[in-house]
Structures are given as C-alpha cells and as structure tokens.
C-alpha cells in the first residue's frame, strides 16, 4: 500500500461527505464547545484565536492543581507536545486521566517527536491511552508508525489518525478519507498544524463518528486556507485571513469548496 | 439595584467625562509609562503590542529574583491570572508586595476564576491587598461578588471595579460610570480583556482619580474597537485594526466618539 | 570616538556590500537552515513566523532533557534573555555547551539587562563563552560596555557586536559597518529586536564572515521594515507587512534598497 497522502484520487469531491463536513461548521457555532488546550507557548495565541473564530471557547491553563477542573468543564481536550517542559508533562498526565475517565474526546498532536527521543517516548505512552484522534505531519508519522501504512497504523492503535500533507489522509483503520483542501502558505505560518488539531478536538464534540469529525475539521481549515490565500500578500496576511475566513465561512461556502472523498487503497 | 451593565442610560455621552477620557490618550503618549505585566502566555504578545501602540513601555518578566526590580522601575503593575503556574504565583506575591509598599497603582484581572477554585482563592487573597482597580467579566464578577451589586462590591472591597459587558460599568463604591463604546468582535479575540486591564494600569499612572482613569482606559479601547470594526473582515483583521487604531486615535477623535456617562442607579 | 550609531555617513550605499547582503536572502531560501531559539514567550510566535518567512526552520523547546538534541540538529542557536525563568537558564547552559562544542554559530540577545542585575550577570557569563554575534539596543550596550566604544568592546569580547539604532552599527573589533535601513515603527512592535537576532543566527549559517552575515541580516529586516511601512496603518499592520515583506523580497529588491556601508570612525 502506498502512503495515503500520495493518492491523486483524493482531489475529487464526494458530495455527501462534503455536505457532512459543511454541516459541522454550523453545529460548532451553535454548540460553542469548550476546548481545553495543552499546547506550546508558540501556538497558544493563534490556537485560541482559531478556536474563537470557529465559534468555540478555548482554555489553556497548565497548573497541576486546577487543570482537572478545566478538563472536567471542557467538552474536549487537545494535547500538543510542541514545547515539552516538566509542568506541561505533569499537566498532561492529569488532563488525559480526566478525559479518559469522563469519556471526553481528546486529540494528540505529537509535534516534532522525530527530533527528540524523550518526546517520542512520551507520545507513545499517550498513544497507548487511546486518544480519539491523532494529527501529525509526515516526519512525526514516520517516527511513530515505523514503516506501517496509515490504515494499518490506525487499526493497530485503535484510533483515528490524520496525516497532514498536500492531501491529508484520515483513517480509523477500516475507512480512509482524503481531504485535498489547503494552501502551501499553511506551512509558512507557525502553529497552523497545532490549530488544526484544536479544531479536530472541537469537531469531535459535535460529531460522534471520529473519522468524519476529523476529516470535517481538516476540510474546514483547508477551505479557510484557500479563501485566505486569495488575497494574502505573504504568510502573515495569510494568517490573518485564515482566521477571518474561519469566522466568515458558512456551510454553503464550505460545501461548495470541500474536496473530500473516500480514499482508494492501491 | 439592577446590575449596572443593563443600564440603557449608559449609552449617552457626558461631554465633560468624554473630554477627560480623551485627554488621557495624549498624556499617555507624553508620559510613556512603564507597565510591568504578570499575564498569561496567551496574552503576552498582544498585551505588549497594545501597550506599545498606546505609547507605553511594557515589561513581562516573571523570574523571582528579578521581578522586584522590574516592578520598582515600572510605573504600574498588572496582575492577570489567566495562566496560573507556580512561578507566576510566586512572582505575583513579590510584585504585589513591591507595588503596595511603593504605592504604585496596580490592577487585578481575575481571569477565569469561575472555572477554578484555587484560582478564585488566590484572587480573593489579592483582592484583600486592595488593588487600585479590578477589571473582570460577568462570570468572574459573579464568582467574586456572590450576589452583591457592582457599587456595593466596590465599596466593600475599597477598590475601583470595572465590569466589562456590552456596556461597561465602573464603580468606586460612591460613584459609578458607564462606558458604552466597543464592538462585539472584541469578544472574538483572545486576550482583549487582558489588554484592556493593561491599559487601565497605564491610565492609572497619568490620572490620580482611579475611577476616571479606569473609565478612560475602557473608553480608549472601546473607541479603538469601533474604529477597528469599520474595516475588519473578521476577528484577526479586527485585532490588527484595533492596535493600529490605538496608535492612531487622538484626543479629538476620542472625544468625538466617547460614550461615557454617569450611571443612574435604579 | 563617537558612538557609531550617530555616524551620519552610514546612510550611503556601498554597492559591493549591498550585493553581498542581497545574496544572503537567496542563500537562506536554498539552505533553509534550522535555527533553535531560546527566546521569551512574548517573542516566540513572532520570531518563528519571521524565520519561516525568511525560509528558515525554527524550533523553540526549552526542556532540559531534549534541548541538547535540538541544538545538535539545528544549524544555529539564538539565546535571548527577554524572559528569565529558571528553566530557560538551565536550557541555555546546555544549549550553549552544545553550540560551543560543535562550533555552531550562536547569537546572544541580552534583552533588558539594564533593568536587572541577575540578568546582566548571566549575560556577562554568556559573553565570556564567545557568542558568534551579539545584538542589542543602546541601554543594553551601555550596561555591558561600561563606557567602551562599539569597536573597542567588540575587540575586547572577540565577537561581532551589532548595536541597533536609527543606524545600526556592526563591528568585529577590526572592521565596522553601518546599516541605515529600517523604520521607526519597528520600535512599536514587541519582539522586533528578538526577531532580528534570530535572523542573524540564520544568516551565520550561510556566510562564514560573521561581520558580513550580521550586517546582511540587519539589512534584510531593515529593508523589509521600509517596505512594510509603505502601506502600514499602524504598528499591527506594520508587523503583518514586515513578515510578508521578508517572504516576498528578493535579492534584486534587497540590493536596490540596502543602505549599508563601511563606517568611518571620527
């Protein structure tokens, strides 16, 4: 099996999947889910603004004596490993315990694990706690999957895995979807992937099928990226535009632009 | 007594109060006060840029062995509880001691205390140190005031209390002002309230009457928000515009737009 | 000798130096150097986006058990003292050891040392490790140089020293260059100097002569600032524009605008 994200067929739109993704944005704005984010200091501000633009309510505390309460009050949890200090690790252990115990959806973003053995070990331990979804980039996937293909890895870990790339591949081990929305400028803005992971956490609160929710969140940010690129002068105006687009895009606009489809495995 | 921020009369302009608020922006740009900010990592960058745009000089260190020196050199102190780690708590204790001892104005922003009992307890202990002003949102006010009305709470705590809302209510226990400036997009940008609290700290350095200073700072950011909304395409361009507007607005523009008035208590 | 940055002759362009600086931007985009940044939480997001826009790959971790690996994988290191907590100090000690041992270029930005004796002491200890370059503002230079002129201080410390100002002065103790590019709005955006220091670290990976590399990086950000100012409405749109300009400017545009020259010492 070829790695999913090289699948050219992923570029087409499946109408039913597009409608399903589009419906998500409307539900987020009604539900206004609380998303608690353990994320790195580089990403915190942008992630909070992305969540607010999409209609969600972010919180970000890491203090060991209050994070349990925040996760308990939240509808979903994001764990991003982008900065990796002792306090964040302690907070993560507590937060994941609460999420698992209370059956809240949670997302793991194993940022930059390919560059750090202790971080990779921590990511593996978190993966064993069965996050609802995992979103990662190619080098991170390679470090975790150790040669396994996307679908086999998702099956082995019993989670939804979203592999970002020119075309995103999302698999729950049985089904695999492709999302072809996005723009190359997304890779020139720090924390774009972290923010996408936060949107996945939000999406999981309004859609019980984790595969659909994950794909819908990536469709949403990908479409916003395409809208943003139309008037961007560079990566910073692109970052401004993408948050504005997340705020303005509606279900009809999303349905028209979504390039989501079931993936063929060759 | 009804909660102040439901007061429809707050929408009018009292000319003398508007002139007084407008004069503040000019004085800030001449005085260029140093404002030391203990604030959360989500808010630090935006808060620093808001202060710089208004003509102030921000500093942000939290290190226990240097914060006393920074507060001593500063003209005012902001204590925001938005992230609540051990180092921030230790830094806060030292910083407030210096501010109280040296009679420097300081502002408490008890962010998100409604979601965390330890944070609320910490906020109550800080309130007992008599901050010059407290700025908070509705749920935070409810958690602290426990049923008391704005004016009664301000009187009991012997501080100026600014309750943000569609119309802001500001009271020192004897007098109450209403500021009706602002835009709904302000609630869609993370750290907007934290930045408003930082501007209050700055305003307290150029106006001895803490009630007037607090109301003037909220008028300034509210007017900047209205200017920002005119050309915003969403919350991120709004955030860019509001900082630009804080930099560009002058006393005449502020006086023309200020909707500040004495509040009637029904 | 007068302090260098008061040198009016610094405004002219030396064609060969301008061409040399312009070539840098092209090499950065080909080499895509990894720059590990120990920088303050106020500056992290902006610094990462500045590096990405210039074609570099930033990383920012501070964890004691992984920073050695990150610095080892990086092409250059930035040490900025803008926030000064215990974890950052521990991380700095490890990171500088790796950089010195592996002969990687590293840059010291002794932010705000004039305001804090412990921070100044830490900066002096780092200076003794012989950073490849030091970038600082006037008050920081005054605190470190204690009356010495730029060239004498650079010679005594055996490093390249870049003193930011209306005209930047850059000296390696034998040669001194002046860069007159830039815009006053650069001083109204937090972390602009930190980002400039990060670009110096990046430049040192593609140019062995540390004096030329440092001057080229300051020319790059100064020219980007001039382009940014053309359409800025205030400091926040300026900050967006400067990142966009760093992304868009090419060698020809840089060569045309560079105002770099050898400095005369009077």
Description:
The first copy, chain A, has helices spanning about 15-30, 45-55, 65-75, 85-100, 115-125, 140-145, 150-155, 190-205, 210-230, 235-250, 250-255; strands spanning about 35-40, 55-60, 75-80, 105-110, 135, 160-165, 170, 175-180, 260. With about 270 residues, chain A is α/β, with parallel strands linked by helices. A 9-stranded mixed β-sheet of chain A has the order 2-1-3-4-5-6-7-8-9, sandwiched between helices. Chains in contact: A-B, A-C, B-C. Chains A and B meet through helix 2, helix 3 and helix 10 of A and helix 5 and helix 10 of B.
Mean pLDDT of chain A: 92
Class per helix and strand makeup of chain A = alpha/beta
The strand count of chain A comes to 9
The major β-sheet of chain A equals: 9 strands, mixed
Tell me, briefly, the overall form of chain A.
Answer: globular
Strand order of the largest sheet of chain A: 2-1-3-4-5-6-7-8-9
What order do the helices and strands of chain A follow? HEHEHEHEHEHHEEEHHHHE
Number of helical elements of chain A? 11
CA-CA gap between termini of chain A: 6 Å
Largest interface: chains, residues each: A-B, 29 and 29 residues
Q: How many whole angstroms does the radius of gyration of chain A measure?
A: 17 Å
In terms of quaternary structure, the protein is: homotrimer
Residue share in helices of chain A? 40-55%
């Amino acid at each position: 099996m070829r790695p999913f994200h090289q699948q050219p067929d992923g570029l087409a739109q499946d109408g039913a999947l597009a409608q399903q993704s589009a419906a998500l944005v409307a539900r987020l704005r009604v539900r206004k889910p609380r998303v608690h984010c353990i994320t790195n200091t580089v990403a915190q501000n942008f992630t909070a603004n992305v969540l607010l633009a999409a209609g969600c309510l972010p919180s970000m505390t890491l203090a060991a004596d209050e994070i349990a309460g925040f996760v308990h009050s939240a509808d979903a949890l994001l764990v991003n490993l982008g900065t990796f200090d002792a306090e964040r690790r302690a907070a993560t252990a507590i937060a994941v315990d609460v999420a698992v115990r209370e059956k809240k959806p949670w997302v793991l973003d194993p940022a930059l694990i390919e560059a750090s053995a202790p971080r990779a070990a921590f990511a593996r331990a978190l993966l064993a706690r069965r996050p609802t979804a995992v979103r990662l980039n190619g080098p991170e996937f390679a470090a975790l999957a150790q040669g396994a293909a996307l679908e086999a890895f998702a099956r082995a870990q019993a989670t939804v895995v979203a592999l970002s790339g020119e075309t995103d591949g999302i698999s729950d081990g049985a089904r695999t979807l492709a999302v072809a929305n996005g723009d190359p400028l997304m890779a020139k803005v720090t924390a774009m992937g972290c923010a996408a992971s936060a949107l996945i956490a939000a999406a999981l609160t309004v859609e019980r099928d984790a595969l659909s929710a994950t794909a819908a969140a990536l469709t949403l940010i990908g479409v916003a990226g395409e809208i943003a690129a139309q008037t961007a002068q560079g990566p910073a105006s692109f970052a401004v535009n993408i948050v504005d687009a997340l705020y303005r895009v509606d279900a009809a606009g999303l349905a028209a632009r979504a390039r989501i489809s079931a993936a063929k495995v060759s």
